[in-house]
Specification:
Helices cover 46% and strands 9% of the residues. The protein contains six helices and four strands. The protein has helices at 9-31, 73-84, 107-112, 122-138, 148-163, 169-181, and strands spanning 47-50, 53-55, 60-64, 93-96.
Amino acid sequence: MGRARTIARRSFLIGSAAIVGGVAFGTYLIKRPIDNPLLADLTDGEATFYAWVKIDADTITLIGPHADKGQGAVSSQAALIADEMDLDFGQFETSFGLPSNAYWNTAFAEEGAPFMATDEGFVAETVRSALGGILKVVGMQATGGSTSMADSFDKLRTLVLSHAKPLSWLHLNKLAFLLRNLRPNQAP
């Protein structure tokens, strides 16, 4: 057999190691936690729990990660968070999310895959999952194609339930009181 037709054992091992290393590194990039973008801009007396809630002594600010041009995306996203935190309208303010990988749009993976939305086959779901991983690593913070609520509904409710559900309105008021009455470098 000619040299071009056969794969040497060494080439096979090197190629296999490169593929396994690429898969391992890609998995690490997708699974690693994303930093909270609100931590960089906190002033004295402010706290943040994750990328969607900022609190100070006077206000609770809920962050909407998608742009709003009058369609109600920001207030709808804030309503999702507020509902899980037992907040009523008037007890919080809303703001836009800063450019950050934390606000990547999961719905673009659903819409961007070359399959019908109703196709739940193995190949379709695998492609959507891979595309979602790429969008997370790239930090695709975008709004369009009616993806704001499709992206936000499960993500915001799940994140709030897992991180902030114990932070009811009573807990947030207690935290605001502590922030208002503590001096810098003073422990509670």
